[in-house]
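User: My collaborator sent over this chain with a note saying "see what the structure looks like." That's all I know about it. Can you take a look?
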Amino acid sequence: MPKELLSRFRVLYLPEYTKEEFIHASTKVLVERENVASDLAAYIAEQTWEVSRDVREAVRIGKICRSRDEVDEDIRLIRRYGATIVQ
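Assistant: Without extra context I'll predict from the sequence alone. Here is the result:
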């Protein structure tokens, strides 16, 4: 973002989620907002942590996957073709 535009905003640098925080937040959003069963939501959160630190990625997975097998396949696709942020 150009510094002239950026100067119009307050920029905050927030620490990354810990694994536990990420799993808790992702699971909560999936269960409460996306109506995903709690056991599947926790599984999605755990698996998403391996490829992303973005709760929105867990939500995307939760919207299209209805089983652990589907989650596993989606994670395989992300690993193979997606831009992961985990180093």
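A starting point for your reply to your collaborator: Residues 18-81 form one domain.
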